Amino acid sequence: MQIRTATTALYDDFKTKMQKIADVQMASAVLGWDQETYLPEKGAGFRGQQITTLSSIAHELATETALGDLLRELRQRDDLDAIAHRNVDLAFEDYEKHLKYPAPFVSAMSQATNACYHAWIKARKANDYQLFAPELASMVSLKKQEADLLGYTTHPYNALLNEYEKGATVNMLDTIFGEVKTAMTDLLRQISARPQVSKALLHKTYPKKLQWQFGMHLLQAMGFDLLAGRQDISEHPFTTSFNPKDVRVTTRVDEQDFGNMTWSCIHEGGHALYEQGLPTSQYGLPCGEAASLGIHESQSRLWENNIGRSKDFWHFHYPTLQALFPENLQGHSLTEFYHAINQVQPSLIRTEADELTYHSHIMIRYEIEKALIDGSLTVKDLSATWNQYYQQFLGVSVPSDTQGVLQDIHWSHGSFGYFPTYSLGSFYAAQFMAAAKRQLPGLDAQIHQGNYTRLLQWLRQEIHEHGRFYTSNELCKKVTGETLAFKYFLSYAQEKYREIYR
Amino acid sequence: MQIRTATTALYDDFKTKMQKIADVQMASAVLGWDQETYLPEKGAGFRGQQITTLSSIAHELATETALGDLLRELRQRDDLDAIAHRNVDLAFEDYEKHLKYPAPFVSAMSQATNACYHAWIKARKANDYQLFAPELASMVSLKKQEADLLGYTTHPYNALLNEYEKGATVNMLDTIFGEVKTAMTDLLRQISARPQVSKALLHKTYPKKLQWQFGMHLLQAMGFDLLAGRQDISEHPFTTSFNPKDVRVTTRVDEQDFGNMTWSCIHEGGHALYEQGLPTSQYGLPCGEAASLGIHESQSRLWENNIGRSKDFWHFHYPTLQALFPENLQGHSLTEFYHAINQVQPSLIRTEADELTYHSHIMIRYEIEKALIDGSLTVKDLSATWNQYYQQFLGVSVPSDTQGVLQDIHWSHGSFGYFPTYSLGSFYAAQFMAAAKRQLPGLDAQIHQGNYTRLLQWLRQEIHEHGRFYTSNELCKKVTGETLAFKYFLSYAQEKYREIYR
Questions:
Q1: How far is CA A407 from the centre of its chain?
Q2: For residue B231, what is the domain's CATH number?
Q3: Which domain holds residue B97?
Q4: Fewer CB atoms inside 10 A, N or C side of chain A?
């Protein structure tokens, strides 16, 4: 007679294995953070090798037969609680997905990513897309293979989308971006017909040290726990988390552009609050992870735009800012400042776009990715197509590859299917914010007073604490009563910009 | 017929395995560095767990049967070059040593270290040795077991000494420390009979920022490559290296004690120059590691004392220092400053001791460790014995456990056998420096001019580049023509202090 191992013992075993994998992945993340912040220049080569080794160890552990066996056994148990059950299901899903990648493919992808990234750097320096094209072509070919390995219905791009936003499809995005395009064209047309606002105010000289001080002040005001996280300087702002008790954001400071630091700081702060709000008890387990990239982005965008570009927010913080930079801001009213930070103006660079035209940048990338993956666009024609889309969607002429098709790092990393989550994040954010306003009486007044405690508590309870327990779809429905709908972003934008541009 | 694998293929396989282990260990070292410099307070728990996981993965990899088989096969090959041969021999020696530790012992030691460290922290805070004693007793008992596991001849302490300084024995140390004691007693007696020098100069207020700037200046002057390393602030200064292209030192700055930052900076800089000088081609292999702790310490002490407390060194750097701190140093001569930084004065705290009485602190710890390990001293009597030795060796009364037996972290970490390498390092340093002066004509004049290029080149060629190829004994003989001899330190000290104290 075989003795049946108790479910709790099996589950503990599962947790131990998963936490070991997480420890290795998180160690790799620490090395990654260090690489972007403090690594001495000559250390880059060995560092790359160290990160590769940790990734391969994590991959070995995540695809161990013993883990698969354990998961299959656990899936047959009916005495798991809801969270444990969900952890097992999601872990099994991840396990099976990891197995879909044969070792030669993983290795080819790793090499291609490295080559592609360096080609991108080189091409940017030379301002010449053609230096990037051959490596990008190999990357696109590998991404098509990846779509086949993962499997899909309807469109191969769905397989890649699914990696970043489970359940997102070309159908869904075509529909939502269709609505976006119609509504935005109309809104942008109205705005362009009105007297324009100026953002010259943001481009005076703002000394670095004071900007840094103000950024730290904002992070703390938002509720970012500096005993469980920190901020440093890096070339490109990012958030990384090694567990909810150690969440790190970075920013950059441009003395001639006050907005650069401020909204990157609030944006990454929003990501960081999500990470600090994930349940520590679920460390290493799916329910200890973010629901999806779209939901992650909803948290950063909610803080960056819905809160951080609102008049209520600056009603409270503008006096502090004026006191820090009296020479730049004395005599400039809150309204003037509020208009400056919300200027709408079609432009070339995605990361510097306002919150309306931003989505045109995303739609261009979405159309291009879809077409590259289904083969209707070839890599060699990409630069021309890019420039044509920028004319068509935004009415701007692209003067150079560096300010055009070479501006984003994503494709050089093989991140196809990632861009749409940026727009989804904004739309989720507007929908969540509308729900918060319905559910939290007096929220506007609290924000007006610089008090985000209740809002953060609500985000924690409604979103952060659940980790991956709900899919983004389920989560959206649970929190707002319906699945993702563009109308919330639209009415938020209409109301806000009609007031600004009258 | 079985086909014999080519030696180069076997050796490449060996290198790959060793570098994988190194990658994991180095990743763990990055996490350790981060823990001491930038880790947010609440992240400590998860960080400990992540480091433990990496250590256990490294241990698994280092004790894999396949590695042992490979090493045994390689040891039979006669077509390895000298360095490859040595790498294989040393790696096999390390492999067999790793196997001597049974898993339950490793786990017990890991738990005991954790408990012992926290008891030490607690006891220090409460200034009460008895809070530390029970955990220390468990630690000592485990160290005795470890000596048995490792095996030894003559004295169990030899097994532990061997971990830090291969070949060092109680016999050797009893002899050398016997000489030290006789010579030092005499020298200290002479010094105490002369008019004393004052170090009040060093205890004015030296602003942090300027001290930091001066420390960075010294590191660069020594030849520390800041593109392959960096300096940060931590509570206790240390050096850590992730490969020769990424070597990190830390320091601390006390505004009321200029010496604290300066000589910790030069000391760690000496360690760091050694690490930056190890051969990158040997990364992950024994010949890419330091020869021993004693040799490592020789490099830090050589820079800290033989160079960094010499009149020639300050002849060049004192004017810069005066310019940085005019209010503190204008009107104070180089001689006055030189005397201040070389004041000899028996004291309570090892890390603040001058370079002569320092060795009495080490001898006390050596006598105590020997006796704890052979059982002639019990842990409960340790505090009393400590105080008695301080009276006997240094003529000082210990007013409290915190300033006495609880001052060093080492025993709480289970580092028994480590302290003697500090003294050995000083003696090696004096012997190396004497050889350098013989072999490099004009060295004093170069130091007088702030030029350490030739000296560093010599240290690189004679010591750094060889890694663990030679044992410390062999290395000492190769570089200086004889094995370690105390007489070099003695004549260095006699000459220096007779001049200072006349």
A1: 17
A2: 1.10.1370.30
A3: 7-153
A4: N
